[in-house]
Amino acid sequence: MKEIKRSIILFAGTTEGRLLAEYLQELNRPFVICVATGYGRDLLEDICRPDHDGCMEIRQGRLNVTEMERMFDKLRPELVIDATHPYAVEVTRNIRIACSKRKGLRLIRCLREPGAGDSRPGVIHMPDVEAAVTWLSSVTGNILVTTGSKELAAYTRIRDYEQRIYARVLPSAEAVAQCRSLGFEGRHIIAMQGPFSEEMNLVQLREYGCAYLVTKDGGAAGGFSEKIKAAHRAGAAAVVIDRPGSGEGISLDEIKGQLKEWMEHEKKGSIYG
Asked: In the chain, at which end, N or C, are there fewer CB atoms within 10 A of the end residue's CB?
């Protein structure tokens, strides 16, 4: 019986997304990668090359539900993998809705392991960025913000933010332009690719004299523990934006296992349920 190769759409944008793309490449699976930004595309370009089998293309741009449905109608995938960031609530919701409207389309959400709990003093948990900004407005001292450029506008409500806040963002033209449009300039824009070591976090906290480090719980892949440890060593408070409801999903290793099982069913001519 002729082997049937089913196509996959992978929504990437994280370390796990890249690892899954590499794994699909190894398995020679037909797949399309979707990323939101040009920077995300650049990080995956070496996977989707003319001399490589498997990856059909990289699609760039933020998609709403209707646009996702149109893409599904055209590509007719049988599996969609959501490996977007744990805090990308809107895109995860859009993917779930778009998949639910297509009969027989399976969706797997890749869940990143959360960072280990930290009971040491100086770790302050906030439910969202808005709450963190409100609290930071009530204190004094410089702030290292590591939550990215997308939500940076909220921090401009903090008094003297141009002098107090040091924004660490991805080294993309879009991220730097966003910082500048909000009034951040010079040393207050730290455009670097993470994750960062404990020592690098410590150096930056001390260099800019920061009393606070704002972070999301990006887990081990996002260098969360290294940030917390560095803040403790620097005598800075770590302000942690807690994860939204994680919903259903499985780990990176579990997804790899299911993909391998899917291949075995194909070879036997079975239908993967």
From this structure: C
